[in-house]
Amino acid sequence: MSKKKKIVLLVAMVAVLAIAAFVNIWLINNSNTDVTDEGGAVVTGNFFSTYRTDRQNTRNYEIELLDEILATTTEEYAQAREEAMAQKLKLIETTELELLLETMLKAQGFTDAVVSIGTSSQNINVIVSADELTKEDTAKIYNVIISEIETTPDYIKILAI
Q1: Residue 126 forms beta bridges with which residues?
Q2: Is the pTM of the predicted complex or chain greater than 0.85?
Q3: In which domain, by residue range, is 50 found?
Q4: How many domains does the chain contain in total?
């Protein structure tokens, strides 16, 4: 396989991953199916379950694409397979870390939480189910994050819904 074909294949693979990420964000923003209860309060449980489902579906799709690249056996795709394997491992590590952090936040007393770690950036977004966050709550969340990830506050965004 020529070097030009390899570059085209890699660019196409990155484009598909970027599109999948965009679609995931779009689905999250447009599928906010919060419901109000009889008292008029917003029930946010649907947001958390919808987010997790959308995130898992997107990750499954990305892994399928990477598996297709890994399934090629010819020598001309060796570099593409190496990069696909590295991306797949990064996705798996990120997923495991997000799940660990979500569980740790629930153990700290938060009703529900989702964590989104950027695979191509250092950004970490934390969304917790709470009416508002005190300084103590924010410090608790930050301490949970830095206990598992070496980062600075500049890259951590914490939201309450």
Answers
A1: 115, 158
A2: no
A3: 3-160
A4: 1
